[in-house]
Amino acid sequence: MRRLELDDHTADYWARQVRIGSTIAAVVTAIGGLRMALSWPSSSRWWLIPVAVAIVLQAGATRLPWNRLVRNEVFRRRHLLMWWLAELPFLLLFGIGDPNGAMLYLPAAILMLMCAAAVWSPRTVALLGALVGAGYAVLLPVRASLGPIATFVILAMYACLVALTAINAQNRGRLDARRHMAEQRAETLLEASADAVVAVGRDGELKYVSPSIRRLLGHDAASLTGKRLSDVIEADVTQADKTGDIQDFLNRMLALPIGRSERTETRLRNAAGEWVYVDVMGTNWINDPDLQAVVVSLRDIGERRELERQLIHQAYTDSLTGMPNRAMFRKKLEDSMATAGELPVTVLLLDLDDFKLVNDNLGHSAGDELLTTIAERLRAQVRPGDVLARLGGDEFAILMRDLDPADASGLAERLLTTAREPVRLGSRDVTCSLSIGIATSTGCEPAAAGLVCADQLLGNADLAMYAAKRGGRNAYAIFDPTMSMSVLEEAQQRADLEHALEHDEFRVLYQPVVDMHTQRLTAVEALVRWQHPRDGLLGPYHFIAGAEANGLIVPLGRWVLRQACAQLARWRAERPEAAGLKVNVNLSARQFQYAGLVDDVSAALADAGLDAASLTLEITESMLMADIEAAKETLHALRRLGVRLAIDDFGTGYSSLSYLKQLPVDVIKIDKTFVDEVHIDEDDVALVDAVAGLGQALKMQTVAEGIETDEQWETLRRIGIDHGQGYLFGRPAEPADIAALLSAETLSDPQHV
């Protein structure tokens, strides 16, 4: 045979065949001894002594540990073969010594060849057959007295028997080689497989362990085979949600019908003492006669578990701040509401005021830096057991249990204070504020719990937070049931405003701006009105504040800007008198802070075909001073377009002259409050006179607003104010009415406007 290492199956086969051969040899020897005792002369019966020894040795050989001995290549190929060869001379001597030896020699030799064919290669069987045949050829003429022809025939028939035995040995060898190749292939596949496979007997003994167990648990397969499962594999029994105990899993497998499978996940400790997460798939083959085991497949799922952990972490954690996100906060809130009992649950909803301006003006990276800084400050103010989450954007939430309502107010005060501390973003210090809404579970319906009350509590905190925003921001508000009505009203107003924008319900009227000396029309100020389908024509006081609060002021302001530019272009195209006419458009605070303002202005001018100097944009003092550095950047960007800039309501704010000098402003508009009594109040006269002098010094035009009487007009003209507007010269009018004024020499009779 080829020099192959014997596996368990082959070693067991060899051991069984050697024992069978030893038994047959002992029986044949015993038959020969009986023949000696009965038929041999008494002088030759001394042969019974060595024969008896041979019988004892051959019978005793069946008790040797052949499963271990045959695994020794040298023993198997030399000593065991010598045993077979040693039988031949004794068989030949018996055939010569016995009167019927020729008759007894042949069956004994055939038995020996058959035993040899069961284990040896065809070459070895042929060699033994040739040696036996040679002895038979010597024996036949001596004991059988056969002639040459009869001897040849018998030997030829014997040669056929030897050939047949060798062919059987060859066929057996091929079958063994194929079986070994199949087993080797299966073993290779099992070793290459990511799964480790073990076969466990009914008593928990490991009957087979695939080599891939080394990659999974670090154990050698041979060292585990034959041991009890519980002695070599330690499972995790601390996992409450997993099957943990592998022995319990095995017991359940034994209770299943044959061929049925069961699956579980657990942790096993490897050879290095580390835990390995495995997927366990077991199939019950304990009653199968070929297997008689439970076949268990073990797969490493450590990477999958880690990926699941990461996915869960991502699903419930905010990537920017590392805080719980909205989904996790909602889950914690529902759990708290379901188990709160008599303990109150408090939710604080926090929103950064005007955070969008930081993103628009400084970029999203600066916005992210601001959010992380604020998040760390908030984290420092809450208790370890509280849940602080980022719900998204600039919105945070805090979940607290067993908190007194008064303590919630104190916490809100601390949060407002810490948020107001300046944050350094690049080269600028930015100050932001919070609007905080507070709601407690005491406001929930008694019958509500879990999901329902969680929705109600979160909604209450949201209403309170918006109440804080309406109250001026940088404040907190505690939920009150009356807040629901005001929020509904605001929601309805927002819906109405959105509908008005979509269906062109807004109108632009124009108020004349005249030269104070010639009374000629020099400009118009665009003023928006809402033609409400139910309430009629509404002035700005009815909707501008709401649009500013909910962000619709930006698209509304963009629409007014485009309408005003387009209307001026139409006047100029229709009337030569409008060649020098200009249009003034007011900018809201949000619109001025909007990052796309310059692009909007440029697009409106381009679409209307107007030169930029035809447009004057009006900004209030308070808008400028909210962030003077950002205001300077925006104003200079607008000036680069070529548009004119005006400060509206001048005198009502708190701008300094140094800042006024730095800003690219063309027009100062004096607020109506200083015009109302300018003809009778010396202080107002002095103030307006100072503004007129300031305008002349800084080379800025001055416009007085709200002129309603001839006395006011005369006084302002005497002081030196350049331009004026008010009901004296004309109320806000339709475009057709303004067109009629263009041909008038003066506006001395403005009542028709």
From TrEMBL:
Q: Which domain of life is it from?
A: Bacteria
Q: Where is the GGDEF domain?
A: 343-481
Task: List each copy of the PAS domain by range.
Answer: 182-257
TM ranges: 20-40, 46-66, 78-96, 125-143, 149-169
Start and end residues of each EAL domain: 490-746
UniProt-listed Pfam families: EAL (PF00563), GGDEF (PF00990), PAS_4 (PF08448)
Keyword terms? Membrane, Transmembrane, Transmembrane helix
Q: Which InterPro entries match?
A: Biofilm_reg_signaling, EAL_dom, EAL_sf, GGDEF_dom, Nucleotide_cyclase, PAS, PAS-assoc_C, PAS-like_dom_sf
- The answer to whether the entry has keyword Transmembrane is yes
Q: Where is the PAC domain?
A: 262-313
State the name under which the record lists this protein. Answer: Bifunctional diguanylate cyclase/phosphodiesterase
